[in-house]
Structures are given as structure tokens and as C-alpha cells.
UniProtKB/TrEMBL annotation:
InterPro entries named in the record: CTDL_fold (IPR016187), Sulfatase_Mod_Factor_Kinase (IPR051043), SUMF_dom (IPR005532), SUMF_sf (IPR042095)
GO MF term (any one): formylglycine-generating oxidase activity
Pfam families: FGE-sulfatase (PF03781)
Gene3D superfamilies, A to Z: paralog of FGE (formylglycine-generating enzyme)
Residue ranges of domain Sulfatase-modifying factor enzyme-like in the record: 33-304
Annotated Polar residues bias: 289-300
Name of the protein described by the UniProt record: Sulfatase modifying factor 1 (C-alpha-formyglycine-generating enzyme 1)
Span list, region Disordered: 1-28, 289-319
SUPFAM superfamilies per UniProt: C-type lectin-like (SSF56436)
Length: 319
């Protein structure tokens, strides 16, 4: 568990939703998110600036070779996820467990403080449909990234859409946008108030923001060199890999897929709650992790496939 995104243990006796495989609709869904092909190539994976957290295992920097793959230009949106739920009847972990973690400044209901991270509240009724808690809706948020989705929810969507979660190596390679050794998707210069470049926390974290706190539309800011939007900040994105802080020491050079064992899953990209004084994990090399059932108001995902089949973006209407 990380203070950037608190973990949520599975509650005893909670009924899990039927999987799309059990429902007989595996791979039947249209993935109506724009995708791009990232060409095969070699890159240096890891933190070359010595800015990472030791327990995150961002070093040693190591050369990785990847085959070409397609990747979503944006995180999966509320509109897209709504289509998946309408087609499958999927019930997310947050809905099954009865609540999720919400950042304290925008929670719509009192919650239970998360030990060690009092700015996170465990709010009953928070879910992807009610991102700030009871009474909140998706009005005006159709093109925002879906949140309060667990790794298992993200995988269920992928199963339906015939896609996959990116490996950690695929995610970093795509997020770098063709910039070898860069700190951010756009280069090395940090974001500023005049040129924000990404959705992160502005102000004195965690209680004195100088602007709105929360997600922004997935196409906010300019895309990187591969055409990907918001690979820094906005929402953490689930990856396929299991997490190990020691994995970079033994990683395969070609198309690595992470450790064979481990309970936690990798998260990448940082979120709208990252801040230089607290969580500088919106760098492209930054790593984090959480348990696969964990959900929070700053966790989402995007998907990958073997190669690009370009489709029109989904409608922004959410029922």
C-alpha cells in the first residue's frame, strides 16, 4: 500500500461479480478508444536522475527491447467504462465492497481516516459511478478517466474488449514518447504554474490547494511524441506486472513481463494528488504498487493490444 493511493482489503464474505468469461462474452466488446502503434525499439528503463524512492526499485537503469504494440492514447474514460458495464453487468470491487478511498477535500460524505494517511477517507458508497462519494455523479465527467477501479476491474474490461493491461515496460516506453532518458513525457523541465503540462496538486499539500483538486478530461494538455495524453498525473494507471522492488536487477531484456510471483500489482504515471514536496511519482520512471483489489479516487487504467486498429473515440454521453 502507498500513501499515494491507499489499499483496500477485500471484505470477508463479499460476493464477486461474474467474470466476462463466466458470462460467455469474453472478447466480445468493442474497444472504442483511440489507439496508436508504438514501434518496436530499445530504451533505457529506470530512473537516470537519482530521484526515485529506494523502496520503489526504480534502479538500476537497464536497456529493454520491445516489439511493436498498440496502446490507448488516453486512459479509459467514464463513458467507455459505462458501455462495458451496460454490456456485461459488471459490478466493480468498490461497489461490491460498499465503498472506496476518496481524497478528503472533495469527499461528499464523512469517512473513516486511513491509518497513516489522514487525507484519505474510506467513504461508504464511493465508486466509479459516485467518484466523490454518495450524491456525486458523473455529470460533466464523461471524458474524465474512470476511477475507483481495481486491477481486477481493469482486467475484466480488457477481457471483454479483447485488450490487455500494458506491461510496465510497455507503459514506460510509450510514456517516454520517443525521448530517451527524459524525466517527463515532454522532456526534463518541470511543470510550472504558467505551463502546468500535467494534472497534479497545486498549493500546499494536502490541505491548501490553490486550484481545483480532482481529475481532468483525458485529453487535457498536449500529447507526447507517441500521441499519448496524460501519462503524468491525473490518475495512476494499472499495469499487468506483479511488483518487486528488486525486479530491475533480474529483468529480462526483451519484452519483460514482471516477476512470476507477488501479490501487489504495478501502478504508473502518478495522479492529480502528486506534489513535488510529497510524491514526485509523476516522472516517467516512477513506480508504485497496490493490491489488486484496491480502489481509490485517483486510480484508473489504459490498455494495449498487438498492433493499432484505429477506431473513433466513444461518445461522451453517460447514462
Amino acid at each position: 500500500m502507498s500513501c499515494c493511493h491507499p489499499g483496500g482489503p477485500v471484505r470477508d464474505g463479499a460476493d464477486e461479480s461474474p467474470t466476462v468469461e463466466q458470462n460467455g462474452i469474453l472478447g466480445s466488446g468493442p474497444h472504442l478508444v483511440e489507439t496508436v502503434t508504438v514501434p518496436a525499439g530499445v530504451f533505457d528503463m529506470g530512473d537516470a536522475f537519482g530521484e526515485g524512492y529506494r523502496t520503489d526499485g526504480e534502479t538500476p537503469v537497464h536497456e529493454v527491447e520491445l516489439n511493436a504494440f498498440s496502446i490507448d492514447t488516453t486512459a479509459v474514460t467514464n463513458a467507455t467504462f459505462a458501455s462495458f458495464v451496460a454490456a456485461t453487468g459488471h459490478r466493480t470491487d468498490a461497489e461490491t465492497f460498499g465503498g472506496s478511498a476518496v481524497f478528503h477535500t472533495y469527499a461528499t460524505a464523512p469517512g473513516r481516516p486511513v491509518p497513516g494517511t489522514p487525507w484519505w477517507l474510506a467513504v461508504d458508497g464511493a465508486s466509479w459511478r459516485h467518484p466523490a462519494g454518495p450524491g456525486s455523479t458523473l455529470d460533466g465527467l464523461a471524458d474524465h478517466p474512470v476511477v475507483h477501479v481495481s486491477h481486477r476491474d481493469a482486467q475484466a474490461y480488457c477481457d471483454w474488449a479483447g485488450r490487455a493491461l500494458p506491461t510496465e515496460a510497455q507503459w514506460e516506453y510509450a510514456a517516454r514518447g520517443g525521448r530517451r532518458g527524459a524525466r517527463y513525457p515532454w522532456g526534463d523541465e518541470p511543470p510550472t504554474a504558467d505551463d502546468p503540462r500535467c494534472t497534479i496538486f497545486r498549493g500546499d499539500f494536502p490541505n491548501e490547494p490553490t486550484g481545483p483538486v480532482g481529475t481532468t478530461p483525458v485529453r487535457t494538455f498536449e500529447p507526447n511524441g507517441h500521441g499519448l495524453y496524460q501519462c503524468a498525473g491525473n490518475v495512476w494507471e494499472w499495469c499487468a506486472d506483479r511488483f518487486s522492488a528488486r525486479y530491475y536487477r533480474v529483468s529480462d531484456r526483451t519484452d519483460p513481463s514482471g516477476p512470476a510471483r507477488g501479490s501487489a500489482r504495478v501502478l504508473r504515471g502518478g495522479s492529480h494528488l502528486c506534489h513535488d514536496s510529497y510524491c514526485h511519482r509523476y516522472r516517467v520512471a516512477a513506480r508504485s504498487h497496490n493490491t489488486p483489489e484496491s480502489t481509490a479516487s485517483n486510480i484508473g487504467f489504459r490498455t494495449v493490444g498487438p498492433r493499432d486498429t484505429r477506431r473513433e473515440p466513444i461518445s461522451t454521453a453517460v447514462s
